[in-house]
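Hi, here's the filled form for the chain we discussed.

Project: internal
Contact: R.S.
Residues: 302
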Amino acid sequence: MTVAILNVSWQTLADALALGGVYALMAVGIGLVFGVLRLVNFAYGQLIMAGAYALAFASQWGWPGWAGILLCFAVVLALSVAMDRLVFRPLRTQSPAVMLVATFAVAFLLQSIALLAFGPLGKIASSLAPLNRPWTISGVDIRKIAIVAIVVAAACLLLLQLLLTRTAVGLQMRAAAMDFGTARLLGVRANRVIGGAVLVSGVLAAVVAVMLTVQNPLVTPDFALRDTIVVLAGVVLGGLNRPVPATLGGFAIGFASGILGGALPTNQSQYLPTFLFAAVILVLLVRPNGLFTRGGGAVERV
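And the returned structure, exactly as it came back:
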């Protein structure tokens, strides 16, 4: 009995770390767009859903896994650029409320298109299924995707940090996130910075689509919807104003979700969202600017 409990405990910890890494990638993608545009993109989950459908169709067509991943990236990046050019850029000078409603409209539009085109039953993405099989490490069965997700998340976050600190466009993104108006006065080109942030967030959405599809190969029109809502709460929990606190908030809520999901009995798993969002409310009552921020007030959109 003790050995069984130990196995479950280690597997739960590995899965929680993997989910935290995936949610951190989602959080930094959402945080980047907010930092530059002051826009909470509620359609981010539909980008992930589109990438998951690309993987499912690649599996259906008999494509190898690497080809499906390339198709996933191509679809997500194309949709990200189209969303920026057709929706965000024309509405950039409008009020935050208009931009927010626009992202809701895009989200439900993409979800409705998927429902009409592919039906409610969904598609199976099976080409990456081997990654969901367990590895036995010191007598403990840990899914391969848990280890892969942790490594990939760490690598992506390291590369992103290098981009933000060692490249010109990255430094411009950081300056825009702190004060877009002043950054533009100092010569930062808005279209370049916004386009860069949208592309980076699209790349991260494609990575998340691959990770989530391995863990849940059934792709439906509401794929990743719940995850996006949880991550948005995590981004607010960490601190919406800066990429690093947002990333830490996403990881924290993903890790907590994984731990609670593994610890709760099966017949009580429906209470998991209640515990998570109650904890978010309690933290925000004490730290309204975010758990991982140092003071500072609310951010105004320029």
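Let me know if anything looks off before we file it.
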